[in-house]
Amino acid sequence: MPVFKRLSKLGVMLVLLTLLLIGVFPASSQDNPVATLDPVQGLVQHLVAGAPNNQWITINRAIPVVEGDSIRTDSAGLAYLTFFEGVETEILPNTVLKVGQFQVDELAVDPTFQITLEVSAGAMHHQVNQVVNAQSHYEVYTPAAAITVRGTNFWNKTNSLSEAAVFSEQGTVEVFGIDLNGQLGPSALIPDKLSLEVTGQGQLGILEPFDSLPSYPALAPLAPMTCGNAVCEAGEETVCAIDCQVFPNCGDRICTAEEGENPVTCAVDCVPAFRGQPDLPGSQQTTLPVVPTEPCRVIATNAFVQIRVGPGFNRGILDYLDANQPFDVLGQAPGNDGSLWWQLLVPNVAQAWVNQVDVTATGDCARVGEADAPPIIFAQPTAAPVATTAPGMTPVPTSATLMISFVADRYTIPQGECAVLSWDVEGIKEVYYQGKGVIGHDQRTECPRSDTTYTLMVVTMDDKTVYRTIDIIVQTTTLF
Question: What is the value of pTM for the model shown?
Answer without folding.
Answer: 0.58
